[in-house]
Structure formats: structure tokens, C-alpha cells
Amino acid sequence: MLSNPPKELRENIARANGYLRRGEVDRGLACMSAALRQYAGLRLMRSARAVVDIQINEFLGALIHHQKMQPLLDPGHNGKPRPIPYQQGKESALATVLDGLAKILRDEAEDSIRREAEARLERKKNLIQTGVQLMHEGQTARGRAFLKRVAEEFGDEAGIHLQLAQLFVAAGQYMEAADMYEQAMEAQPREPAAYTGAVAAWEKLHEYEKAEEVYKAILRAFGGPPSTLGKMAKMYLDWRRRPQAEDTALRALQSDPGQADALAVMAALHKN
Question: What is the pLDDT of residues 166-177, one digit of tens each?
């Protein structure tokens, strides 16, 4: 017969109370269930058993009044939650009850997360559909506002800025598209489509200085493949920056003598 409860039993009871105080009720239930199963069948001196019994009853008293347990134990909100009784010799039965309560809480938490995710997805979908529809109807400012709200509310989702940029391009809103592509560059710095989209949008707007900045960002992020240098040379040519166009085209041709954009730039330069 033991004069003191085993260390593991004491630690599980302490953990159970700690989790309960922090609001992690399901974890507290799991620890107390483990403690009860350890307690079952132990031969303890009366004084040691009395201490453990007090700790178990204190946990149960705090548990039934915990806010997260009220929907289960006090559904009528009358301030009198159903008790969870503890009887010596029935520790395993009580552990089973606590396991069941923990499962209910976990299931409810998972359902709540799922419902929140579904509601979030539905809101995003409605905002996007409304924004696209408004722009299609010619209410451009209102449509843009809806899509920008998507970026504000769901900007933490991977790929959302890229998706919105593509929607702006489809609606012919290149300024908003360029801005959204640049946000995509910040959110996903290794996503090539963000950079190429930003370049295309700025070039569509003849904002060559901004397109140049994106090209420089591409070179920093991905190096200088001949295809990128060829497109950059073409941008310089459209911008009427002939020295930069020639220099960049030559850099492309050094690595790839057959690079089509660079060859076209050189041909245009020599023609004029």
C-alpha cells in the first residue's frame, strides 16, 4: 500500500487543472481521464486517497461551471449545471464519461472550424462574383471596390492577389491589375506569374519606368535568362531607350544567339 500517489498520477491531475484554467477543456478532460485510469486499482493509504479524491472533486466542480461546458451541462441557462458525480471504485467509469465529453467538444470545435471556413469561402465567392458582375455591367468603380475588399479580407490566402489581378486584366482594368500583381510579388516572391503579369500590365499602360523596376526585380529573384533579357530589350525599344535596348539585347544573345526577341530588337535598331 502506497503512502503517496505515484508521480505520473499527480502530474496528470496537475495538468488537467492547468488546462482547465487556460480554457483548454478537452485537453484537461484527457489528462483527468488518464489520471483516473491510473488511479483505478491503486492501493493507497487513506490519507493519500483523500488528497486525490479532493483534487478530483475540485476538478469536476470547476469543470461543470466552465463556460465551454454550459451548452452540454446547463442547456437551459438556469445556472444549475448537471453534476458529474465521482464515486470511489468507479474511476474507470468516470474516465469513460470524461472521454465522451472531450470527444463532443472536439467534434463541436471541428464543426465550428468547418462552418467558419465554409462561411468565409462563401463570402469570398460572393464578393468576387459581385465585383466581376458590376464591372461587366459598366459599374467599374463599384466592381473594383468589391475586388479590392477581397484582397483586404483574404490577403492571407496564397494566390488570392494573383487571382484578383487576372480578373482585373480580364475586365481591362490594367492599373488595378498591375497593383495587384505587385502585391502578389510581395506575397509570393518566387511566383513567376506575378512578375510577368505586372510587367504586362505596366507595359499595357505604357508605364515603362515601373515595368523596368519589375524587370529588375525579376533579375534579382530569378537571374537573367536570355528570354527575360530579350523581353526587357523589347520593352526598352518600345520606350525609345535605344542604348539600353541594344545593351540588353546583346546580353541576351551572348547566352542564346537565337533568342527571338533580342534578334528582333537588334534588327529594328539596325533598320532605323
Answer: 999 999 999 999
